[in-house]
């Protein structure tokens, strides 16, 4: 059975990786603090070279390999940030690296990993398949397996974040940490409890993947689905990390997809920083239950910034819909000349911009002589959209507004 790293192990890791990873900024967000009603600190780990905290643990592990182990090479299983971290630092250190990824991994991630000098092996439909194959290859070829979270040296590397955060803000009351396999929170918890025993440590999981909450609280909750926070969508948390967090974590919160989307969008809009779903989970927890953090000095880690640009665009537009600044209005009209002009005139009068217009004459329950016109529009504020609806209804149109949830 593996033993947890100690605070001395974490301090040694901080010395070991110093200069090879970025000591990322940790700043108070004045705007988020006002929204949450707390003093909100953000640790910008999305500014690492590979855009994620994973470099800390991977590098700490690689630097402790013997010359013989380095010569044999390392192997890891990952479709995300751990792959980039192992590949990048292995190349820097002259260590051969193999990364096993699920067959469906997006080409851009495969290319990025290969760009760091690693050999990529595509195998299986899911991460669990890739993980099993990586273990097999390690046994067959003598590679050193670099686990993404359930390894004392990887955990110690992640724990260096706890040292940095409390050095910057020693008066913190609470640290909120995204949880996937649990390596990040395990390391931070060990460091934080050693420095400030009374500090509150709250883990955050996507509502669809409550695996660590179940493991340490003895619960049986549904698990699975498509989450924006794929970086923490872990079905089986670590054995070592589960033991650590059962002892040290104050609680584990679950956040719904809506709050994850809102957090990603707010970080772009307010902090002008790009964060993936997993990296925004800590802020999502604060947004989901601000009363829990009211009046406290609370910090969270923006642990990764690797989000697909198309997905990010979708999240940002969906947030505008929820804010009431983008809307899709379904307007039932008689299918005759001038109907569309009458609708767009009312939109113009309200000072609202038309993004797209679609007619639906066939797939509708309206009479054959009628049509449904969908008008997608954008406004400076929700009141302007409300004004468009009011003007259309006053003109005799029947208007239905499409909603996200």
Topology of this protein?
Layout: H1 7-17, E1 26-28, H2 30-36, E2 39-43, H3 54-63, H4 67-72, E3 74-77, H5 81-93, E4 97-101, H6 107-115, E5 119-122, H7 127-141, E6 144-145, H8 152-168, E7 174-178, H9 183-195, E8 200-206, H10 211-217, H11 239-248, E9 251-255, H12 257-271, H13 281-288, H14 290-293, E10 297-301, H15 309-323, E11 326-334, H16 339-349, E12 353-360, E13 370-378, H17 382-394, E14 398-401
Parallel strand pairs: 2-10, 3-4, 3-6, 4-5, 7-8, 7-10, 8-9
Antiparallel strand pairs: 1-2, 11-13, 11-14, 12-13
Helix pairs in contact: 1-8, 3-5, 3-8, 8-9, 9-11, 10-11, 12-13, 12-15
Structure description:
This protein is α/β, with parallel strands linked by helices and 405 residues long. The chain folds into three domains: 7-50 and 179-317, Rossmann fold (3-Layer(aba) Sandwich), CATH 3.40.50.1100; 74-142, 3-Layer(aba) Sandwich (Rossmann fold), CATH 3.40.50; 324-401, ACT domain (Alpha-Beta Plaits, 2-Layer Sandwich), CATH 3.30.70.260. 45% of the residues lie in helices and 19% in strands. The protein is built from 17 helices and 14 strands. The protein has a six-stranded mixed sheet. Strand 7, helix 9 and strand 8 form a beta-alpha-beta unit. Helix 3 (54-63) runs parallel beside helix 5 (81-93), helix 9 (183-195) packs parallel to helix 11 (239-248) and helix 12 crosses helix 13 (281-288). The longest helix is centred in the middle third of the chain and has 17 residues, at 152-168. The protein starts with 6 loop residues before the first helix and ends with a strand. The mean pLDDT is 95.
